[in-house]
UniProtKB/TrEMBL annotation, chain A:
Protein name per UniProt: Peptide ABC transporter permease
Entry's localization field: Cell membrane
Family according to the record: Belongs to the binding-protein-dependent transport system permease family.
Membrane-crossing segments per the record: 37-59, 113-138, 150-171, 177-196, 227-249, 283-303
Record's keyword terms, sorted: Cell membrane, Membrane, Transmembrane, Transmembrane helix, Transport
Predominant location category: membrane
PROSITE patterns documented for this protein: ABC_TM1
Keyword Disulfide bond set for record: no
GO CC aspect terms: plasma membrane
UniProtKB/TrEMBL annotation, chain B:
Domain ABC transmembrane type-1: from-to ranges: 111-320
Entry similarity comment: Belongs to the binding-protein-dependent transport system permease family.
Protein name, as recorded: Peptide ABC transporter permease
Subcellular location: Cell membrane
UniProt keyword annotations, A-Z: Cell membrane, Membrane, Transmembrane, Transmembrane helix, Transport
Protein's GO biological process: transmembrane transport
Membrane topology annotation: Multi-pass membrane protein
Transmembrane regions: 9-30, 115-138, 159-177, 197-215, 295-316
Species of provenance: Actinocatenispora rupis
InterPro entries, A to Z: BPD_transp_1_N, MetI-like, MetI-like_sf
Cellular component terms per the entry's GO annotation: plasma membrane
């Protein structure tokens, strides 16, 4: 797979890898995975929607902060008037109960938060994981011992509990999305570190790496030019499946009220608000809920497809299954 | 074996010590002035603040406070804030800033709720997950397998609070089969206890069962392709016996590790479920104490969670080595 992804990162010429795992071959395999392609299409669409959120809400003619009291049925406790939570030409996905804020605008802006936090957290987790894992795998036994223990410690950490506590106690003046990314990254890198360390230990003994070492390359240069390319496949697979995990984590933390703060909308926060309205206005659960579900599912399908395309062994297995 | 156990226990103790230090230092160093927090919303005079500081030992350097905290857990500690002297018996985790109750007592009060939730959920998700996983491995590529794979994917992609909300809409609003859940103690009325917990159990199980289905399927397929299974078949052992006795045993052994650790993680990892269904368990205690910056309670819950996970990790290793004799204890 190496070439394309690595060129993007400017990592240098790829290590000699079998031609069948080149980027083009992976794309060919990926294209045959129907589920993965559907996932990819939805992911691209979601990213476009998130990027174009201001444009889309401008076309709709709404924003996510304006209250619309006139659209609410005060006799029924403030649920939206009209069927299906007030869905119509003016409000494409209806309005929020109690406030009457436009739901389309809120979920579209929520997509921004959700994707931005999840993707940034994944990138940060990858960087930390690669740094720790490669150092552990290449820098000798003492470094390996210390870093591996540390990785084990993080894996055994009650991370959800700790994240909730940390998010709740850091002063509210700290920008929340940044804080969320940092907290997610703090506990999410250990898996990547383990994979990177394992691969580095294996690749270290390969002939081409030994040759490079003999030729005078060492340390950082060796890691960058000879080991990293060999790591790309397992790490990319793992990363693709980290994104949905981060999306769920962000939604969960926001659901508990320690994630994204109002007025910035987020799906988890909306579902949390919906817990008092699900009886009178189930659409308020469905709209952010379906979006959250579809997003996580699409990323997972894409990740599974990438795994099949990148790992020749698992491709064989799935083919044998059919 | 004895040496291995000793090593494992010592290792777990070190991890616990590091964990407690990190948790304590971070949470007590972060939020400004804890004495002000004890005072609550009312404004305290400077001398009152000072008395609180001295009484709780907050005027000492933080590493010394941490030392007293550790001693308190092992041997109990005595607070002397002015005229009154309070003795807090071991394991002492301090007193809630919010209510003044001992943290240890608070944790013990909430424990049965969380236990009820996870034990019931665990039984459901392991049963459903393993059954579905075995079934889909045995019928690989057929309809059952495809349906199970689809369900796994859906379960994996649905956050527990979303499953819970959907269950509430269906069973409490539309069908009206169940009242909105509220916790009832098992000891008071077992029937009401189960009735109130059934939705939280199911919500919790959907996500976890998906994980177990996938793991069981993979593990079962792997075991079925092993040589000894082929040998048994070649000997003409009935298929039911090959699968029921030999394949299942091999396939389910790896699940022991995951199951033990899962059970431990769930003890406090069910915060979302507790929060949605209004169950007064450990997770909810954490959320409310975080909201009030009730430091002793936050530290108490976090440490308990960590301790349970560390112990479970060690227990899982030992259990695994007992179940699978091929694993040498090193």
């Amino acid at each position: 797979m190496t070439t394309e992804a690595l060129a993007a990162d400017e990592i240098g010429p790829p290590a000699p890898v079998p031609a069948s795992t080149g980027a083009r071959a992976v794309w060919r395999k990926l294209r045959r995975e129907r589920a993965a392609m559907v996932g990819l299409a939805v992911v691209v669409l979601l990213i476009l929607v998130a990027v174009a959120a201001p444009l889309l809400t401008a076309i709709e003619g709404q924003d996510y902060t304006t209250y619309h009291d006139t659209l609410l049925n005060s006799a029924r406790g403030g649920v939206p008037t009209g069927d299906l939570g007030g869905i119509g030409g003016a409000h494409w996905l209806g309005v929020e109960p109690q406030t009457g804020r436009d739901l389309f605008a809120r979920v579209v802006y929520g997509a921004r938060v959700s994707l931005a936090v999840a993707i940034s957290a994944t990138v940060l987790q990858l960087l930390i994981g690669l740094a720790v894992g490669l150092t552990a795998g290449l820098a000798g036994r003492i470094a390996d011992g210390v870093l591996s223990r540390f990785t084990d410690l993080i894996l055994a950490f009650p991370s959800l509990i700790f994240s909730i506590a940390l998010l709740g106690i850091v002063p509210q003046s700290f920008p929340r999305p940044v804080l969320l990314v940092l907290v997610l990254a703090l506990f999410g890198w250990a898996g990547t570190a383990r994979i990177a360390r394992g691969q580095a230990l294996t690749l270290k003994t390969r002939d081409y790496v030994a040759a490079a070492r003999l030729a005078g390359g060492g340390g950082f240069r060796l890691a960058r030019r000879e080991i990293l390319p060999g790591l790309a496949a397992p790490v990319i697979t793992y990363a693709a499946l980290m994104v949905p995990g981060n999306i769920i984590a962000e939604a969960g933390l926001s659901f508990l009220g320690v994630g994204i703060n109002p007025p910035t909308p987020s799906w988890g926060q909306m579902l949390s608000a919906a817990t008092t309205w699900f009886g009178g206005d189930p659409m308020y659960v469905f709209v952010p809920g379906v979006l959250l579900f579809v997003t996580v599912l699409s990323f997972t399908l894409l990740g599974d497809g990438l795994r099949n395309a990148l790992d020749p062994r698992s491709t064989n297995l799935s083919r044998r299954a059919e | 074996m004895a040496r291995y156990l000793l090593k494992r226990v010592l290792g777990a103790l070190v991890v616990l010590l590091v964990l407690s230090a990190v948790v304590y230092l971070i949470f007590y160093a972060l939020p400004g002035n804890p004495a002000q927090l004890v005072c609550g919303p009312k404004t305290c005079q400077a001398d009152q603040l000072h008395r609180i500081e001295v009484g709780l030992g907050l005027d000492q350097p933080i590493w010394l406070q941490y030392w007293h905290f550790l001693v308190g857990i092992v041997a109990g500690r005595t607070y002397s804030g002015g005229p009154e002297v309070i003795h807090c018996a071991a394991p002492c985790l301090g007193y809630s800033y919010q209510t003044g109750e001992p943290v240890t007592g608070l944790l013990l009060d909430r424990l049965p709720v969380s236990l009820s939730l996870i034990v019931g959920g665990f039984v459901i998700w392991v049963t459903v997950g393993v059954a579905l996983g075995v079934l889909s491995a045995l019928r690989r590529g057929r309809a059952v397998d495809r349906i199970a794979t689809g369900l796994t994917l859906a379960g994996n992609s649905t956050p527990v609070f979303l499953v819970g909300l959907l269950l509430l809409i269906v069973f409490c609003v539309y069908l009206r089969w169940l009242p909105f859940p509220g916790y009832q103690a098992l000891t008071v009325n077992p029937l009401l206890w189960a009735q109130n917990l059934i939705l939280p159990w199911v919500a919790l199980s959907v996500v976890s069962a998906a994980v177990y289905t996938r793991l069981t399927r993979t593990s079962m397929l792997e075991t079925l392709s092993e040589d000894h299974i082929r040998t048994f078949r070649a000997y003409g052992l009935p298929e039911r016996r090959v699968i029921g006795r030999h394949a299942l045993r091999g396939a389910l052994t790896p699940l022991i590790t995951i199951g033990t650790i899962d059970l431990a993680t769930s003890l406090t990892g069910t915060t979302l479920t507790e929060s949605l269904f209004g169950l007064p368990g450990l997770g909810q205690l954490l959320v409310s104490s975080v909201r009030n910056i009730d430091l002793p309670v936050v530290v108490g819950v976090t440490l308990l969670a960590g301790a349970v996970i560390v112990v479970a990790n060690a227990a899982a290793d030992v259990l695994y080595s007992v179940a699978d004799r091929r694993v040498a204890l090193a």
